[in-house]
């Protein structure tokens, strides 16, 4: 079985966009791949997080992944900082990456372009730690959003360069990005991605939103004035976004859904999307509530750590031997 690995960076509450773009796919992948999913808490702190908020967001992320159907019996689920070998490998990879490469990373450049002051050194070497996350486990595939693809490409470059320099060491991973539903857009501005840092709060549905409040957000989603139900991402991006949301949640093909609403008003369509979202959130949150009240979170992360750690340790020692930093092991 091929190995797949992905990290989630919960610097805020997880959104419906995260569910449709990532969580949902992980749940499907776990039957066909050996899945490693970890919470990238060390990446979260490359930008300051209020400690109490961070802790809550980390815990909620694990609980929501489990509630969404990630199965600790099938997948290895763990916390990045619990496997210290990962961070240590990150250091060694930082010593095998060039500033020129890191300067080209668009995520870093975006922070610089926004004129943010006091950018941390951690933010700059972020991609080296991410490369370590992936290479420590010799992952074959890394499912990521488009915004993270460049980091996986850098990981490939680092792996190939290391293999050439020190002899075959790392599996060179492939990024996996998906097409439909890969990017759920903001409900208030469909030209932007649905983002957990949405300040107006109207464009974004959080997985822990009160279902009624989420339904209201759907009802007031921005559409267009063409008054014609069609799936046209270019000219009717708001409507297309709503159609994608509904179809992602129910599994109905886009074409079928669109045909069903041909000639109807947008209000009718929105009512159905709102109902789909409401039902989905109600079910998900019921499972979430049960999970946070049980020992499942703690047990899952402890079992995950026990499975992940020996793998990362083996890779780390191999790397250290090759580089020449070890003496007696
Ligand atoms: N950087 C990723 C994000 O912001 C999270 C992440 C950290 C990750 N390490 C990873 C994703 C390794 C895939 C593989 O979403």
Please supply descriptive tags for the structure shown above.
Tyrosyl-Transfer RNA Synthetase, single chain, binds tryptophan, 329 residues, 3-stranded parallel beta sheet, two-stranded parallel ribbon, mainly alpha, Rossmann fold
Count of distinct strands: 5
Rg, rounded, reads 21 Å
Oligomer: single chain
Low-confidence stretches: none
Describe the sheet with the most strands: 3 strands, parallel
Give me the side-by-side strand order of the main sheet: 1-2-3
CATH topology-level name of the largest domain: Rossmann fold
CATH class category name of the largest domain? Alpha Beta
The H-and-E topology, N to C, reads as EHEHHEHHHHEHEHHHHH
Global mean pLDDT: 95
What is the name of the CATH superfamily of the largest domain? HUPs
N- to C-terminal separation?
A: 30 Å
* Bound ligands, each once: tryptophan
3D structure, described in words:
The mean pLDDT is 95. The protein is mainly alpha-helical and 329 residues long. The protein folds into 2 domains: 3-182 and 295-323, HUPs (Rossmann fold, 3-Layer(aba) Sandwich); 211-289, Tyrosyl-Transfer RNA Synthetase (Orthogonal Bundle). Helix content is 55%, strand content 7%. The chain has helices at residues 16-29, 41-44, 51-67, 84-94, 99-103, 106-113, 121-135, 146-166, 211-219, 237-250, 254-260, 266-292, 296-323; strands at 3-8, 34-39, 76-79, 141-143, 174-176. It has 13 helices and 5 strands. Strands 1-2-3 form a 3-stranded parallel β-sheet. It has a two-stranded parallel sheet with strand order 4-5. Residues 5-7, 9, 40, 43, 130, 133-134, 142, 144, 148 line the site of tryptophan (TRP).
């Amino acid at each position: 079985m091929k190995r797949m690995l992905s990290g989630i960076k919960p610097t805020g509450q997880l959104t419906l966009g995260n569910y449709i773009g990532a969580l949902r796919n992980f749940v499907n992948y776990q039957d066909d791949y050996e899945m490693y999913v970890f919470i990238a808490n060390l990446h979260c702190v490359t930008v300051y997080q209020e400690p109490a908020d961070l802790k809550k967001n980390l815990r909620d992320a694990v609980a929501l992944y489990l509630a969404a159907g990630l199965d600790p019996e099938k997948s290895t689920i763990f916390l990045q900082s619990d496997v210290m070998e990962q961070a240590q490998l990150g250091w060694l990879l930082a010593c095998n990456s060039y500033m020129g490469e890191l300067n080209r990373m668009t995520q870093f450049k975006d922070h610089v372009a926004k004129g943010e002051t006091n950018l941390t050194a951690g933010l700059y070497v972020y991609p080296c730690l991410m490369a370590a996350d992936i290479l420590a486990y010799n992952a074959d595939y890394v499912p990521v959003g488009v915004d993270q693809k460049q980091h996986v490409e850098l990981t490939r470059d680092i792996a190939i360069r290391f293999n050439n320099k020190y002899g075959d060491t790392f599996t060179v991973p492939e990024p996996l990005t998906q097409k439909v539903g890969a990017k759920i857009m903001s409900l208030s501005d469909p030209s932007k991605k649905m983002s957990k840092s949405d300040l107006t709060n109207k464009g974004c549905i959080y997985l822990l939103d009160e279902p009624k409040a989420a339904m209201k957000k759907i009802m007031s989603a921005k559409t267009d004035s063409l008054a014609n139900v069609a799936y046209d991402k270019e000219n009717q991006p708001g409507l297309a976004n709503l159609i994608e949301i509904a179809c992602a949640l129910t599994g109905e093909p886009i074409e079928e859904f669109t045909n069903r609403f041909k000639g109807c008003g947008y209000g009718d369509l929105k009512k159905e999307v709102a109902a789909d979202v409401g039902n989905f959130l109600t079910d998900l949150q019921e499972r979430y509530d049960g999970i946070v009240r049980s020992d499942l979170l703690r047990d899952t992360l402890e079992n995950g750590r026990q499975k992940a750690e020996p793998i990362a340790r083996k890779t780390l020692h191999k790397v250290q031997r090759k580089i020449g930093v070890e003496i007696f092991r």
